[in-house]
Amino acid sequence: MKFKIRPATKEDCKEISRMVMELAVYEKMSDQVKITHEDLERDGFCQNPFFECLVAEVPEEHKSTEGFTVVGYGLYFYNYSTWEGRTVYLEDLYVMPEFRGNGIGKGLLSKVAQVGKKKRCVRLNLSVLDWNTPARDFYIAKGARDLTDSEGWHFIRFDGQNLDNLANEAPED
């Protein structure tokens, strides 16, 4: 199947938002999605964007049963390792179920890696839910390492009231 990977535009945000919700439903966490397509537009297409995104698009003749031609996305951002330097973090990689198995996910992942390499990133990081064996197997087959067991890293998060409390404890300027 023919498809094209291209940088997302502001006009793609409704489609990306739709697929964010599809991914959240798959991950059994749809109640946790708080952002809207307007948030994506504001945060991804401003003077200093918080993220970048690639979309996968199929020709009109291969559109989804619902009529969509944007059938996948990879949303990523940059961060910094004090040990190794520039890194890219893949927040989401999603391909609509009816388009899986056609190389679209591999195309998105490879393109994010290519973008990162062009910006001199030394690694690509991502996280996967422990029960999502198909995704874990996909990444491992492409050469990723699962650091959970080998290095013992845990993801730690502050949010909501706990984030507010922590911020309120900051020393005065």
Short recap of the structure:
The chain is α+β, with helices and mostly antiparallel strands and 173 residues long. Helix content is 34%, strand content 21%. It has a 5-stranded mixed β-sheet, sandwiched between helices.
Task: Walk me through what this model shows.
This protein has 173 residues and is α+β, with helices and mostly antiparallel strands. The protein has helices at residues 13-26, 37-44, 104-118, 133-141, 147-150, 160-168, and strands at residues 4-7, 52-57, 70-81, 85-95, 123-126. The protein has six helices and five strands; from the N terminus they run βααβββαβααα. Strands 1-2-3-4-5 form a five-stranded mixed β-sheet, sandwiched between helices. Strand 3 and strand 4 form a beta hairpin. The N and C termini lie far apart (57 Å).
Q: Which structural class matches the secondary elements?
A: alpha+beta
The Cα radius of gyration reads 17 Å
Largest sheet: 5 strands, mixed
Mean pLDDT: 96
Helix/strand order, N-terminal first? EHHEEEHEHHH
Which features characterize this protein?
alpha+beta; 5 strands
